[in-house]
Write a structure and sequence with these properties.
By secondary structure, the protein is α/β, with parallel strands linked by helices. 34% of the residues lie in helices and 20% in strands.
């Protein structure tokens, strides 16, 4: 599959489908293949994994997930992205797409219904930064039968998630996340890895 994690290819696809990045959905498209590889490697994806991807967008990360995982379900809110995703992954029998707001999806029910092979369940995403915390807390508080969560978030948020007691970044988010999980930052990602370029740094946290 053609790699779209470049500025030129991303621009071509946006023009082809008459699209543009929407601020209201927090859309910043990854244009660095090394970051994609880092996310997939950090999540340790293999053929016995059932992956739920949140906010696939143009399918840049999805293209690696469908090649590595046993099954991938992508949850995308933006209806404009559906045709791109369906066009790109129609031939993959391990891929399906849900057009919903992930905050309204019954993930426990989704896993029970769709994980028919009893695969290991993993969450992978390049999260929209404006709703990162609500999504993370939903994933943790619903006590899903999942192995891991590997996500790209704003760097400051990632640092707060893994901060220890007594540090300047330690707070309510640190306490909440660490009650359920053992978070650690996998990699820092500079703004130039995205299009459009965000005003903040990012980080991959598992």
């Amino acid at each position: 599959m053609k790699d779209i994690a470049t500025k030129s290819t991303t621009n071509y696809i946006l023009e082809k489908y008459d699209l543009y990045p929407k601020k209201k959905y927090g859309q910043n498209f990854l244009i660095d293949n090394n970051v994609i590889e880092n996310i997939v490697e950090a999540a340790e994806i293999n053929q016995k994994d059932f992956v739920i991807e949140i906010g696939p967008g143009l399918g840049t990360l999805t293209s690696k997930l469908v090649e590595k995982a046993g099954k991938v379900i992508a949850i995308e809110l933006d209806k404009k992205m559906l045709q791109i995703l369906n066009d790109r992954f129609a031939l993959y029998d391990n891929f399906s797409l849900i057009n919903q707001d992930v905050l309204k999806v019954d993930l426990n029910n989704l896993i029970q219904q769709e994980n028919t092979q009893n695969y290991t369940v993993k969450i992978v995403a390049n999260l929209p930064y404006y709703i990162t915390t609500p999504i993370i807390m939903k994933l943790l508080e619903e006590k899903l039968n999942i192995d891991s969560i590997t996500v790209m978030v704003q760097k400051e948020v990632a640092e707060r998630m893994q901060a220890g007691p007594g540090s300047k970044d330690y707070g309510a988010l640190s306490l909440a996340v660490q009650y359920y999980a053992d978070p650690y930052i996998v990699a820092n990602v500079p703004p130039n890895c995205f299009m459009p370029r965000p005003n903040v740094g990012s980080a991959v946290i598992r």
